[in-house]
Amino acid sequence: MHPLNEPLIRDGKFWLPDDPGRNCFGQLTFDPISGVDLKLFGSLRSFPQSVSDPDIPNGVIHGHLESGKPVSLFGAFRKGHHLTLGTGFPTEMYSANLAAIGVHARDLEQKLFDSANFAVGGLEVWLERDWYPRRSVARDPLVFSLETQPPRKDTIAKSRQRSIILNRYNSIEDERNGRITVTPKSDLTIESPRPRSITWYLQESQMMVSFLSFCVAQLTAVQFVSLNYRSGSNPSTLTEVEIIYRRIDNIKIDANKRPLAPASTFADVRQTLKSWADLYWDSESAIGLIHEVQSDHLQHVNVRFLLAVQAAESFHREVYSPVNKTLRLRIDDLVLRVRNVIGYTPKGLNETFRSKTVRTRNYYTHFSSKSGKIFDSVEMYWASQRLAVVVIILALNQVGVVSSTIRKQLASRDDISRILRAPGVPF
Asked: C-alpha dihedral over 337, 340, 344, 346, to 10 degrees?
């Protein structure tokens, strides 16, 4: 498994799936910022087609790396072709959306894989480090003991389509300088009773990432993904496939912030995850928009604000009321529902906030000089954060996180409490 925040360089031979006899030596690189690139010393097509036709059939390139592993590139497109006539070799440069190291697949929809392993930033925060080692000093002054928890595998979700398994373990490294490092780690496994595609596992992992993001009230991201399949040559053994792709954000989790819905507070985590799956697939667009609002790559506050309003409106329509309603009625109902969950009417969601939210949205979607007083740029940023918090709280409550848990955890999250309690600019 290769971490998605670390670069990678591999040499190998590459070809088009429909013409494996014409292969070129090349170098596959991955950079967390720029993504997957391939530089070839040669051309995947003969002249003159190599010059006149830059398209890659289905966007797929196959190869074998120097380690002997097969590799498939998906969403590949040519960035450049340097033609030489008479001397030297032509060179080609490609970029790809995703690389799968360990398999030759015809596309992202080919159903080959039995399971997936992936790690998510924020998983330890959600678990509240419940398996971290405890230290003790023996009576003998020369002895220091460290008590660690044994590896654990817990099935936290199970249905006809999937099983989700939580893995806890300790990584022990002897640095051979009188120092031993014990690192508690956790990751997730998704198993399917029948082979599934790369796309399916990526969608399932994104569903879990969204769940953890809402639980910890921070944006989280996949740290690595590997898939497992049974090859025809040895069907009794699972072969690992590393999935490499560029993430949008370089996300860092603040481990000191307590989760809004920690794992220990779920009476029935399987039922909660079943409810989350239903909510996620019904409200995927609204949940995705909340992630956009939480991210750092949106530079324009008016765009962030409009996405937050759209997320709140869409969430209300999908979860509470599919009938046509004005934005103001939907915002008012969301605020009322938040009040019922947290036990008070937040000043940050007062009448001024609600009316200016509607006026500002209307100003940008159908401009009128009579729009009245609207948010300035700083107020728009905080309005978008308030709307995101509203959706997160109500989504957690919708899947079974009880009000008392949310109220208790809010007391330890000053960053969220101030957004709700303080009108205008909270910080």
From this structure: -10
Residue 426 is predicted with a pLDDT of 85
Structure tokens given for 325: 């309603």
Q: How far is CA 373 from CA 302, 363, 380, 391, 420, in A?
A: 15, 10, 12, 25, 21
For residue 102, what pLDDT is reported?
96
Read off the tokens for 126.
Answer: 């959600």
Q: Which two tokens stand for residue 204?
A: 């399932």
> In the chain, where are the structural domains located?
8-101, 113-245, 283-421
What CA–CA distance (Å, rounded) separates 312 from 61? 41
Architecture field, domain 283-421: Up-down Bundle (1.20)
Instruction: Provide the token pair at 377.
Output: 């740029």
State residue 91's pLDDT score: 85
Whole-prediction pTM = 0.89
pLDDT at 115 over 70: yes
User: How far, CA to CA in Å, does 251 sit from each of 5, 25, 254, 303, 392?
Assistant: 10, 35, 10, 20, 19
For residues 172 and 117, the model is more confident at 117
Q: Is 28 exposed, middle or buried (0-12, 13-18, 19+ CB in 10 A)?
A: buried
